[in-house]
Structures are given as structure tokens and as C-alpha cells.
Specification:
CATH superfamily of the largest domain in chain A: Periplasmic binding protein-like II
Number of domains of chain A: 2
Number of strands of chain A: 11
Radius of gyration of chain A: 19 Å
Strand order of the largest sheet of chain A: 2-3-1-4-11-5
Oligomer: homodimer
CATH class of the largest domain in chain A: Alpha Beta
Chain lengths: 217, 217
């Protein structure tokens, strides 16, 4: 039995599609009435775990799922020991430093030393500011990070930006990009090494579909 | 201008009610079409920040909100420097250790040393198992913790239990309670010390309503 970890939310529909093209149909997770967290594939030889974005690498790293699809942002933040297999090119967004549009900061190094920076991605933010040699005080928030600068708690935020609409609605502007993020197929390293074929078939199926999708895009 | 931090989700409606009875009306946050995160009170002398549960203590501790309402579970987990003002008695639930109903464990000390325990509340869990002198490996998950035992990743979970329905649906059973949790009114210690009256009036208003509610209940 192959188990795959799928992230609830924005990546789910396309993740299901990619596995379907590789022969594993988990379409029933897309049913809005679905309350199950563990869903068998229609062929019966696999099951999907429907989990939060941030939990996909955990289930894959601990081997409870052999494969998973998750955003590169989560992989960068969590640093779990999973094998990065395929860049699936969808779910594109970037991790960015943003400040109030009315501020005078035009790049991250303009920020004053020891200022506060709010983020859900404090590991990514720490690495970025350490590389810049700019000491900042990171404030970990779990949501609505844009309130940080609006309330005066933080001078800047580090957050994911897809369309930029949320920033704009809150009078914020991105001033520097940390990295670009897309959905990735990841795997449990030991499961891949011990695999006698079936896992590799799915990985290859997804890789082929991905190359065709990229070519036709 | 007084700022209060309100938690999105299960506690929101009753939190708005309690502030309303103390003279601050933030009813507009309950409008399902509301997209604003910072909402003025109808009297104009206060505003509410609508944030995630876990972020309430952060905004209060950093002084961006003078008051806030949040679950005791979050306060125990985060250990932020906020003043605990009033136990509001609503939103009751308990933090519990749960295992598969089919397992032989009947209390937490039955768990095998070095087993894995999954939780969103790893600080609470760590303190509990340390006090028990039972070494366990904690796995931090961000949601659907009940999948931990179901997939075999963890022997047990530490999670909030309100009605017990989620546990039951997943074939799990609570075997030990860590603590009972209810909504709490918290405040920024410095703001309370520097207050010339208005904050204390609101705290007293909420305290009085709370005592009347408790008496009539």
C-alpha cells in the first residue's frame, strides 16, 4: 500500500490531478462533503492523507507517507529530511520582505538594525537576515502577518506573496524577494531506496506529465 | 484609543458579546462579509484586531493591544508575558492525552518510554511528560493530530478535546487530562499599570458581567 500526503488548501486540486495522471485517483478528497482524512484511491492500491500544508513533510519524513506534494516555502522553512523529487511548477508565489508603502525603505538592507520583523516563516527570515548581516528581532505570528506593520508592532514582514492583492489591500509593498516557491513532489528517502518499482513508476509518471505540461504551457 | 485582540473562530462571538456588555461594541466583526482585520468600535474610542488564536498573546505582550480574549490552552502553550485578568468560563475544553481505543494504555504512564507523541501543543506536552518523568519523542503537527495514531506515526496525541466527537470518529479515547481550558481576558502589564481609568473600567465591566453570568448559569 502506497501512502501519499496531500496538502489541504490551494495546492490540493492540482495535486490530485497530478497523481491521477500518474495512475492514482484520489478525486474523492475534492468532494466538499468529504470529512475523511485518510482516503483510499479508486484502484485500492494506495491511500491519501489529507493534512495541513506544514504537516506534509512530517508525514513523509517519518515514513507514514512515501510521497507528498507540498510548497517549496514549507520545505525551506521546516528543513525536514525528505527527498526533493520533482518541481511541479504550479502554485507559484514568492517569499518576500514587505513594508508599509508609505515607508522610505526600498530594499531589505534599508531596514534599521534591531527592528522587528513579523513572519510565519521565521526560519526563512532568520537565514535571510543573517546572510544580510542585519540583526532583526523576529516576531512569530501564525496568520494575518500584514497586521504587524499596520499596528506598528513590526517594521517589516516576511511572507508569501502570490497575486500581491493582500499586500495592496493593506497598504504594503514588497521590497525584496527571498526565493520563488512552487509545489514539489517529495519522497521518503528510505522508502525510495527500498522501492522495488511501484513508487518509481508513480514518480516517473508525475515527472513525465510535468514535462509535457511545462512544454505545452 | 484602546485596542483589543480578538481570536477568530470558536471564541469570537462570545468575546464580542462580553466586550459589548462592557461598553465596546465590535459586532461588525461578526458580519460574514467582513474582510477587515482592524475594526473600530461603534463608539469610535476603541478598535479590535481580528487575529488567529495563537497571535492574541503576541499582540497583547508587545503592547499593540491592551486587552485580549484567548483560550487558556494558548496561554499555557506560549508563555507570553501577559496579565491574566478574568476567567470568562466560556469555550470550555480540556487538554488531554489520547490513544487508540484498541490500545491497552489506560493512563499516560502506561505509554512506553521513547514512544512518539504528536501534538500541536508541544510545550504543554513536554512539561506534562517531563513531570511524569516519562521520556517521549514529540512530533509537532499543525492540524488533524488524530492522524498520528491512525497512521502509526505516534502512539498517543496531546490535544484539545471539547465534545470528544473528533476522537470518537477516529477511534481514539482520552486517557488522561492535562488541564481544563476556558477563555481568558488578558492584558498588557505595562498598559494596565499606566492606565488612568478607561482600561480598568472595561476590565471591571467584563468582570461584573462574568460574575452575573456565572451566578445565573
Amino acid at each position: 500500500m502506497i501512502t501519499v500526503a496531500l496538502a489541504k488548501g490551494a495546492l490540493l486540486e492540482e495535486s490530485v490531478m497530478r497523481f491521477k495522471k500518474a495512475g492514482l485517483d484520489f478525486s474523492s478528497v475534492l468532494d466538499p462533503n468529504n470529512r475523511q482524512l485518510m482516503i483510499p484511491s479508486s484502484c485500492g492500491r494506495a491511500r491519501a492523507l489529507l493534512v495541513r500544508n506544514g504537516d506534509v513533510p512530517v508525514y513523509v519524513a517519518f515514513g507514514q507517507a512515501e510521497l507528498g506534494i507540498v510548497g517549496y516555502d514549507v520545505l525551506r522553512e521546516q528543513q525536514m529530511p525528505v527527498a526533493h523529487l520533482v518541481d511541479l511548477s504550479f502554485g507559484g508565489c514568492h517569499m518576500a520582505v514587505a513594508v508599509k508603502a508609505s515607508s522610505s525603505y526600498r530594499c531589505a538592507s534599508d531596514l534599521p538594525p534591531h527592528c522587528r520583523v513579523a513572519s510565519k516563516f521565521t526560519h526563512c527570515a532568520r537565514t535571510f537576515f543573517d546572510d544580510l548581516d542585519l540583526p532583526v528581532e523576529l516576531v512569530h505570528l501564525t496568520g494575518s502577518v500584514e497586521l504587524g506593520p499596520l499596528t506598528g508592532m513590526a517594521e517589516a514582514i516576511v511572507d508569501l506573496v502570490a497575486t500581491g492583492r493582500t499586500l495592496q489591500e493593506n497598504g504594503l509593498v514588497a521590497i525584496e524577494e527571498l526565493f520563488h516557491s512552487t509545489a514539489r513532489l517529495v519522497g521518503n528517502p528510505l522508502a525510495l531506496r527500498l522501492d522495488s518499482g511501484p513508487l518509481q513508476d508513480i514518480v516517473e509518471g508525475i515527472r513525465t506529465t510535468n514535462e509535457n505540461t511545462s512544454l505545452s504551457a
